[in-house]
Amino acid sequence: MAIVRKTLDEIRAQAARDDPAVRAGLEAIGEEAIAAGAAYDPDNPLLSDAMLDRLEALSLLRRAQERTGANVRELAQRYGIDPDRLEVVAAGRGDPDPTLTAYLRVIASDPQTVARLLHEGA
């Protein structure tokens, strides 16, 4: 069974076509009530800031890999990053520092320019 995520507006639009009592109940629910309900859902725990930071760094690493066609070790060598640090990011462990995350964002955005600038300065 697939899980389908919908926004509150999408749910309300569907409810407008459904039972008036259901529609009235949904109209009474606000974003704050939804967030409070999610906080108590054992099947869908809220992510900590540290976990969100790890997921962001991992997403940027994957995007950089896709854009460059490089594996983690190759990416580290090409852009002057400690390969062990990238392995930690790739495994979703540890807390990536903001500098590494920012650098991955730049690489993911324009890997050719970053590589060119690094090699021009060498």
Automatic annotation (TrEMBL):
What one GO molecular function would you report for this record?
DNA binding
Q: InterPro entries recorded for this chain?
A: Lambda_DNA-bd_dom_sf
Mind telling me what this protein is named? Uncharacterized protein
